[in-house]
Amino acid sequence: MKLRMIVLCMFSLLPALALAEVKTEIVPAAQIERQGEAAQLAKPVKLSLTDTSPTDAVAAFVKETGIALTFDNAERQASGPVITYDVAIDAATLDDALDQLGQSLRLGIYRQSEKAFRISPSYDVGFNERRNNFGQDMEGGTKARITGIRTMRIAGQTTYSPGQEFTVSIVVAARDVMLTGQPEVKLIEAIDEQGRKLEQAKPSSTMFFGGSNLQRLRSTLSVSLQLSRPEPDPAQIKSLKGEVVLKNVKSFSKTTVTELDKQVEITLDGVKLTVGPLAKSGDAWRLPVKTPPGKPEARGNMYQRLNFLFNESAQATGEAGEPLRINSGGSRTSPEGDEMFLQFFSDGSNRPASTQPATQPATRPARPDGIKPVKVTWSVPNEVEVISIPFEAANLIVP
Amino acid sequence: MISRILSVALLTIVSIASAQTTQPAGPTRISIDLNDVPLAEAMKKISAETGVAFQMSSSSPRSGAQAAKDIRVTLKADNQPLSRVVADFLVQAKCSAALYREYGGLALSPGAPLSVIPLNDNITLLVQSVVVEGYANLGRGEPTKQYNYTIQCAAIFDPSMRALGASQSANITELNIAAPRSRNQYGSSSQIDQVDGRRFAVLLTSLRFGTAERVTNIEKLVASWRVLCATEDVKVALEAADLINGGENGDERLTISVPPAGNDQRNGVQFSLRGSLLERFKNSPWESIWGTGAVRIDGIDGGPLEGVNANPQGIRGKDITFRIFDNRGGQRNLAEEIDRIQVVLPTKARYIEVPIVLTDLKMP
Description:
Chain A is mostly beta strands. Chain A has helices at residues 29-33, 54-65, 74-77, 94-105, 128-132, 296-299, and strands at 3-8, 22-28, 45-52, 68-71, 85-91, 108-111, 116-120, 126-127, 143-156, 166-173, 178-180, 184-192, 200-206, 214-216, 220-227, 236-258, 264-268, 271-275, 279-281, 284-290, 314-318, 323-334, 337-345, 373-397. The radius of gyration of chain A is 23 Å and the shape is globular. In chain B, 14% of the residues lie in helices and 50% in strands. Chain B has helices at residues 2-9, 39-50, 61-70, 82-93, 241-245, 334-337; strands at 17-21, 29-38, 54-56, 72-81, 95-98, 106-110, 115-118, 123-137, 144-157, 163-166, 169-177, 181-182, 194-195, 201-211, 217-239, 247-250, 255-258, 270-274, 295-299, 308-316, 319-326, 338-362. Chain B is globular. The chains are: A mainly beta, B mainly beta. β9 of chain A pairs antiparallel with β8 (123-137) of chain B, so a sheet runs across the interface.
């Protein structure tokens, strides 16, 4: 049975001190979602490169596909000896093309935003998201399914935590959910084949969530449930019941600050902030955002709670109307309040405009380039719906 | 300080700035005789013999301190290959090698290696742990099982190998087990994941494979591991009075310098580097070479100074300034103890394939 409960979270905006520079409106979540649609290929990708460096291969891939693809650490490619590879790609879909590129270069690729992807040597080979979406084929509305059970056995000295030894993987199909906060998995009952009751060992966690407090679910979400592991090992879980609890944003408060040369006060996501004035620091335009003095818990955590200041919730526009990318340009904490600096970039690799293909070379260094922002918009949750999705299974084998 | 200046005045002052090409060399051989000595004392003695400081890892300070106090080591080696003596030492010390880039020595973590496998006179492999992840796939269709095995190893390389770095995983070419091997679920990065510049190197690798049924024993496993070894170095050094009174040595590629002493000068514990070579050692993973032994600090007895490391403090113009610390936070007068600072940077390197063979290995 699906329980739905509407909770109105009043992340309402306090009156801004400088009204002329601040505009607020309530926007349905669906409208925000339409701003970015998953990147698709205009034509199949065929690439055949011999004895090529990862940097050159990625540049060729970007030229062929028009997507933004950047190295997590581009400088690393310019260090030490140059290592070369043969690259062969023949793919009809972007997922396949990314997967083949990652496998050819022995590198991992993961999605950063709708049309921007990043490359990391530390991820599994291939396209990371493709490998994690176990339940992509789940049709229909919102539901949860148990997809696996994981165990861990260790000999010798390791840094692994023994507490992670027994994990139930659950995939939630929730295509139209704008998720805020961390999903929660609650155990109702778990009994093994010997009649022993298994306890929930630690809080649930998602498998591919970062620190963002807002995430659009494209197809599925992977979460996990940790269970205590009695001795001797259970061979089967006779019955398992629980629920996954998600918070879905129904609408957003969209706050736009213009005339950034002045200082204005706004309240976003429950945090009171002073924004501006915009100033140039070296080549970069920097916008300070300050919290007022007070207890840290009242101000929020600079790195966690205020991430939305520069993640996908934020949009900036330059003088010519071009979309700008926003990054954290550092922060500082003091008794007078926390201060975070936002920096603006124009290379589009983080969040290209939905109406324009991203054609910038992937290897371009991410440096501020002096384009002045004239408008910054933050979309934060306004109305939040709590969705409880039950799951139930019997006779599950334990590896 | 005066006594130190007088004492160093009696020494021959040698400054070195040279490019050196590797010549294949036999294993370094050392002798050591430890008879039921506490681990802390044993670490000092093997540090003196090998030229690399040994220290318990700070990632497990409580268990590390306890181990240094409780464990007693007995080890006798007469003109044996260094890599094998170090491996035997770790077994006796009930410790594993940890590649934490915390200081320029070898960090040890409590927990005995599972086995020691000499690959040749220059390389000894330690199997440090085995992790088995079981996975029951309960998606659509019939349930299936998958077991992923990760065998974590540390390899000790003789100084003559000049091993710099290695890929995280080795490629398994042969596997004899009592279950069919499934498609390898792991990717292995072929990038250099770790960099080591010590007089002897310890590099970590893992051997990974998957099966559809759980196995409890590996009859035989053969793998190939790509390891990057330096073939040419640039070395610069300052010694004795130059460290106190100021001095400079090197060329446009790499120069080490200490300015003349002044009122605000803390000579003896800081120095600067500049040169075109530094550009190639500022990004991951190569920047870690500063923490793992590119800077070698010797005491007056000619051996490595125990418990110290040099950390980059900042960049002034094209100079990188380093400060030498007591990494245990003590109040030592390091200016009195340091007699030589040498910086070794590899300028050329090549990959070698290191064959790994494991037999009869028990799985958890």
